[in-house]
Structure formats: C-alpha cells, structure tokens
Task: structure prediction
Amino acid sequence: MARNTFVFGLGVAVALLVGWVAFPQALYVKKHQPLDFLHKTHAEKSGLADCNECHTLREDGTFAGLPAMEKCAGCHSDKIGDSKAEAILVENYIKPGHETPWLVYARQPANVFFSHAIHVKRAGLTCTECHSTYGESDQVRLYEVNRISGYSRDIWGHSMSRLRRAPHEGKKMNDCEGCHKRHNVEVGCLGCHE
Amino acid sequence: MKVTRRDLLVWSAGAAAGLMVTPVPWKILDDTSKWSQNWPWIPQPARVPIETKQSFCTLCPKGCGLRVHMAAGWPVGVAGTATHPVSRGALCPLAFGAHQLNWHPRRLRTVRHGASDSSWQAAQGAFAQAAKEGRVVVVEGYPGRAASSVFETFAQKHGGRCQVVLGSESRSLKPYELWTGVNASSLGYDLENAKTIVSFAAPLLDGWGSPGQFTRLWAERAAGMNDPQLRLIQVESSLSRTAARAWQWVPIREGSDSAMAAGLAYALLEQKLVPAHGPVPSATLSAVAAETGLTPDAIRESARTIVAKTPVLVIARDENPSVAALNVLLGSVGARGGVVRVLKNERPVLSADQTITDARAVLIDASVPWEFNPQTSAEVFRFAAWDGGGSREDWLLPAPGFLEDVVDVPTAPASSVETYAVAPALVKATSEVKSAAQFLGNLDSTLLTSEKIIQTRCEDLFRARVGTLHGREAIRVSEVPSVEKLREELWKGAVWTGDASPPGRLRCELKEWPASAAAKTVDDWSSEWAAPVLPPLATKLYIESGLREAPQRRNA
Result:
C-alpha cells in the first residue's frame, strides 16, 4: 500500500514538474526583436513623452499601430548616434526602404476587432492599463511565441496558471470580458467580432 | 527495487491525475483551437487597415443598411447602419454573415444544364431559341428595381409577361387593391404613428418587415424613449416569440383568424365603438366564440381594448380579406397610423403562379426564393448565386453573389416610407457570373442596362426635387447642387426618402364583409426569407431562429 502511494505520488510529482516547469519552456519559443528599440531613451533624448506621438490614431479613429518606417526615418535617415541598434535600423531598414519586421506582442486573431479609439478616447483608459509601463522601459523584452497557436505569450499572460495576474497581463477574450465587467460596460458579441 | 507492471500502471495513474492540475491539458486545448483557426488552407484577410463602406443588403427586398468592413478589397465583416431611416442598424442573422456567402461551398460558379456543366453560350442559345418559339415568362422576387424594368421591357417586346413572387408582407396588403384601386405594392403600414397594433399572427417582433423597424420601436417603447402607450396585441394560436413579448396575447384556435376578425367587427359595431358604416359581418358572436375558442365576452372585451388607444392598425400574417376589412371598419385605411399609400405611380405587379402552362421558357431571377418551383412543361432557366439543392430546373445559371453586382434598392415591402438606395458592386466576382438582366441584355442589345436605368432614376429624383438624402448628414434633394452629386452620394451609401404623403388620399370602399376564407394551412413565414444556404456565422443563430413556432408545428 505504501509502495503504491509512493509510486502514485511520484507520478503526480513528475506530472507537476513537467506541467509547470518543462511544458511552458517547451511551449514558447523565445525570439529577439529585429533591433533593440528603447522606449526610455527615445522619451528622454527625443522628448517623445506621449505614446500618441508615434502610436497614432488615424483620422477615422482607427489605430495605426506601430509607426511606419517613415516615422523613424524622420530622425534616423542617417546615424545620429553610435549604438548597434541604430546601425541596424539605418543600414538594414531605412536605407533599403524596408519596414522593420517588429514582432507584435498584442496581435490578435483576424476575427477580433479592437478599437483603440473607443477605449482611449471614449473610455479614457491610459496606455499603461493594458500595456503596463513598457513605454518607459530601458530594455527590449523577448518575444515569446506559442508553438501551437502562433500567438504571443502576452495573450495568455506570463503566468501559466493565470491566477493573481496584474490587470495588464493577458489579452484573451476572458480578460476583455473581465475588464468590461469591472467597468460595468456591456458589449455584445458583435462589439468585437463584427 | 524491481519495477513491476503494477508500478507502471500506478505511476501512470498518478501522472494522469497530476497532469489534470497542470496547465498542460487546458492550455493545449486552448492553443489547438486557435491553431485550427489558422490552418494554411483557411483564407485569412490581409493585415491592412480596415476600410468601412456603406451599402445595402440585397439578400431580400427589405434592403437594410450595411456597413461593410473591407480589407484589401474584400469584405471581412458586416454591421448595420444605425442611421438608416428604416432598418435603423438592425440586421437579420443571415446579413451579419453575408460576407462569407460568396465563399460558400454551394456557391454556383458554372452554368449547369441538367446534371452536367455547360456554358453561357449554350444557355443563351437555348434561351434565344425558346424565346423565338414561344412565350417567355420572367419571374422575379423584388419588384421595382432597375432589373425589374429590364424584365418588363423584355417581356413586353417578346410577347411574354413578368410575374412576381410576393412576400407575406406584400400579400397581406393584397385585399386593399380591390377596395382602393391602388395596387398592393404602393401601400404600406404606418407603424410609427399607430398607437395600437393588432397583429393576426404576423411575427412583428421576429423578422417581419424590415428587421429593425418595429423591433427598435418596441425596444424604445420599453426603454421609455417613445410613446409608452404603444400597444401590440397579438392574436395567435400559440405563444410565439412576438406573442410572448406583445402587450397582450389573445390565444385563438388555429385557422380561426378570419372568424376572429369578423367577431371583433361584430363586437365593435354591437357596442357602437366605431361608426356604423359599411358592411356588417354575418357571423354571430356565439358562432365566432365557438370557432375561436374564446367566450363572447372575451371578444367584446378585446374589441373595447383595441379601440382604447387610437389610431389602430390591424396586420394579417398573409392575404386575409377579413382581417383587412377590420382596418376598413376601424377607419384605418388612408389614415395616419394605418394603411397608407406610399408610392404614387407604381405599376401593378402580377403575382407568380405555381403552375405556368402557356410558356415556352420560364426565366427565374436570383431574387426569387429557392423554394419557388413552378409546375411547368416549359424550359426553365434559373439564376441563383447558391445552389439550395434538389434543383429541378433545366438550366441553373450562376448569378452575382453578395455585393458582386450593382443593384438598386427600392422601397421595402409594406414600408410606410418611400426609399431608394443603390448597393454598389464592392466585390469582384471570382467566377463568370451574370445577372438575369445582363443575360437578357446580351440577347437584346436594345434593352437598357441596369446601370443606365439607375442613372435615369437618379436624374428623375434630382429633377423631382422632393425628399431627403440621408448620407453622412441629411440634406433635402432640393439643396443637392447637381445630379452628379446626388448620384455620388447614393453610390456612397446614402438613402433617399420621399416626403410623407398626407393621409386621407386613399379612398376605400368595402361593399360586403369578406366571406371567411376556409382555414388553410399558411406557409411557414420564416421560409420566405430563408436563403438557400447559410454562412457559418449565421448557422447557429439561424438554426435557433428556426426553433420559432411554424404553423404546421403548432398544436401537434
């Protein structure tokens, strides 16, 4: 009996170890961004204090997302510093006229419609409520992509258990619903899936 | 220590139990569901800025306003236009998924002759030969369009005729044709101004008319945004979804609508609740009570309730002269909040026959419901964008799908507002498709194209200088600077609405109370707007909507 309990417990322990330690390591592939973009440096040196200065809303209210290469070229048409990242930007992307293939942490499936305009302008949410303080960071995060789904780890959130996560962690439908519930805002299926 | 088979089994059981409290099974389930959405053979819209274009649904004649989200020239989503004067942002489940219809596996992409593939040349040759040899009957579903003019002109020039398959809303207005001399397609129900609506099983809150029109009115009433005195009295044999949400449900026996209408008329006259003019129904209250399953006092009470808040409007589910006569008795024909004349010069339409005996060829437009299959020995040329299955036609011809062809949208059936809009071709067809109007135009080059007729209609609207154009903002047509500007606005998704005609310009003469029609099985109304196929998004919603009670399923 004691032997059976021990063996059963061993099975449980191995499964827990695999499930909580090895599985997350195996599930996500870590990728580097094409170059080390530092939000903090840009905010301090260029005076770009407001997120909207690069991540703009178009005239029709849609979100332009990551700034196009033209925006970077406004300052970096030639090297203005001596960092390796800037050299990559100028030589590999600006001079040949290629867009920088950024890996987008918050990219959603095509059947989801998320309006930044409504959340920022109408609901008055700040950028940090969903994106934390990444805009003030002085280092580039690794991009972790899920081998099965192909989406970023930011969608699930860093915590595998999804317990006690911060409000900005996780961008699954449950997270949207939870936030709407907290703010007492009702949106039907077609609000996001129209 | 020796490892036994038993140890392995116990260890496996422990591992399985342990895995249940790890993220492994749940995360894999979650991830594989997303993985299956992104299989390489599933078309994905381009990752580009979404452009929104205004258009109109042409899947049925109600022409609800659409906002079509486009990515790289392809529609990826559909939503309602809240500023549309009639549909007011509401859409049926089919329209919400309409952008998926063009990719439906049952999309018709080739000409079919019998069981084999054929060509447009062969189809046109066969039709031209048939038109030479005998009469051609053209059957369509949405009268009043530019394409309808093409059909009528072709039929006139070639000694044929044009027939229309009317929906139940239009059929319910048919009895007034005889009494007013105005054809049913020129009449409408003034729902907005009625205070009491008595519906004889018409599913007013379940897709009847333009889906958003009355539903929104009823929701606004519930929210206290408009007249809280608006009453909907549903006279129906079962507790349908409309009956359940109505102000009052009057349950009667199946097939006793005509008798109930006569009984209400009798009770109204008996209690002097309406002026005693016009014919009196011959049925007595006791006879009506026996037929409907109500008591005479209940019928009297219903009659008093009906006239407590006026104007009163009575609506039948289908063509029912007795129910229509109740409107005449109540003075609701030609009155505000009643049956009103919407169009001034609409030509009469010929209802399509289920049996066509005198034709050499029958051409069925894509606007005709798939369920319509005339009994005929003539050669049948059927246009359809989707194959609904079980086709008995000789020729099945692929028509443009959702928003693949420029189509004009005239006034919706039974609407009290005269409207005109143009649904431009937003999508390029991926196979060789032709509309029935284009097909006839290829045979007879003297026929005007639909585009030219739409252009002429724009010019007519501009010259008439009446009505309002509802685009980004509402402007009077008299303030539109040029016909080009009007045309441009219409092409961009504006809706023209006519000026409301003053009430009382409709004379109605009822000489005798209509005989009670024999209780007939009324078709399941929901089949009238059933598309031959459904997009995936609509499937679940539509199946659920199919759970609504149909007449033949009641009292089973």
The beta strands of chain A are 28-31, 143-146.
